[in-house]
């Protein structure tokens, strides 16, 4: 019965939130209260009279989940167990031992250690294999990533005992690692892509994003950066404040970045407040269908103020504000409370009137309609046309941010074979194994990345090794596809080795070399007249 009372209390709190959100409407508050009592009555009847045993807690969670799904696609219930894991990437840190790893041949293989982290401090090296963790054998037992997280993450100051197999040393090595706070970087890469152009890639908008960005910009400015490519492709968003702070780096003070408004939330403006680190140079933002929420806020503000050029494909289209409300057992609901609007008044959110399932099929519809292949396949009614605030260019609302320059998706059927190799981790595993066997000789031969980048090339023999492994795992050889994607596979092998031998920056430096979206961005930045014409074009 205590479980029942607790479950009822959780639901009553949730419904009470809806009631308080309708504080301006006494009738709405009364309606929520009456329905709360109605649901409580139902649960009491189930507990007292239902023919079979029931779990009232599970029933309550299912009811909450169903209720939220009927509101919109982004109002969600998050269980107590999920809350902490969900918050880690946005808070910017977790507590653990500070390694990146891969499960390779059923063994935990260390790819790298976090600089100045606990593992680096006590001498863990890239290439080490963890055989025992706290006395428990973890090699050859079907170890999963979740198992590793449970064993290696823990409260700061606690100890974990590790026994390590290191190549060229016969006996196992013993280490005691004291857990500490480990940063989770939202900035994946930052480097000079040519003599005047910097490149920054962000994977999320977290509490640490603006600090990471400013450090990166300071380093680029020390190299006399004049142009910037900001890569937000695949960036699903994060904290609103992080998006506003980032836009502030590009826009003059007092410029409107975004505003929010909802039936129970009066309009609220968010503006740039200070001089940013890159208000004058030429700016290009890269986006695609995986760029959402905070990414769209930044891109929308830059586009509306004619501050830079957007290149890529239409973004995801998430323009709903979620506010977290904790429930009594530590679980949470993230309830949509308002809409985002760009400075020109565009709504970012794509329609969801046909339900969650239809909403989730949007990507497939984009493929089928031809939108991912040609900008000409996209059409908007006049009601969704808006004008930029400086030059009066036509931009569009109604679902995502439309790029100024379109880049089609790669969907040739000849990629299917290559994608199967990737999904089965064959390219990644080969690269890790090659590096593991040759790490010392590679470092000796290529002591810095520039030498590696100029002189190292993956070989046909490496590709053949991957293909043969694929055949053994049931992936039939497709020679036409191999011929078509071979150079891309070689580049991926080289990028993975560069990442684990040097840094993540160098992974992208290799991988981006033939990226057609980045190539378009560079061509535009190198043509002053063309760049200017895009910004002042009046439709």
In total, how many domains does the architecture comprise?
Answer: 4
In CATH, what is the homologous superfamily of the largest domain?
2-enoyl-CoA Hydratase, Chain A, domain 1
Query: For the CA atoms, what is the radius of gyration?
Result: 26 Å
Which structural category do the helix and sheet elements fall into? alpha+beta
Helix content: 40-55%
Provide the CATH architecture of the largest domain: Alpha-Beta Complex
Task: Report the count of strand segments.
Answer: 21
CATH topology of the largest domain: 2-enoyl-CoA Hydratase, Chain A, domain 1
- Our estimate of the beta-strand percent is 15-25%
* Shape, per Cα inertia axes: globular
Annotation field: number of helices: 19
What does this structure look like?
With 539 residues, this protein is α+β, with helices and mostly antiparallel strands. The protein contains 19 helices and 21 strands. The protein has helices spanning 2-21, 26-49, 56-69, 80-91, 118-122, 145-152, 209-221, 240-248, 294-304, 356-360, 362-369, 415-423, 426-445, 449-455, 460-472, 479-501, 504-511, 516-525, 528-536, and strands at 76-78, 93-96, 99-104, 107-113, 129-133, 136-137, 159-165, 173-178, 180-183, 187-192, 197-202, 227-231, 256-262, 265-271, 282-287, 309-312, 320-326, 332-341, 385-387, 394-396, 405-406. Strands 3, 4, 5, 6, 7 and 8 form a six-stranded antiparallel beta sheet that branches. A six-stranded mixed beta sheet has the order 10-11-12-15-16-21, with helices on both faces. Strands 1, 13, 14, 17 and 18 form a five-stranded antiparallel beta sheet that branches. Strand 10 (187-192) and strand 11 form a beta hairpin.
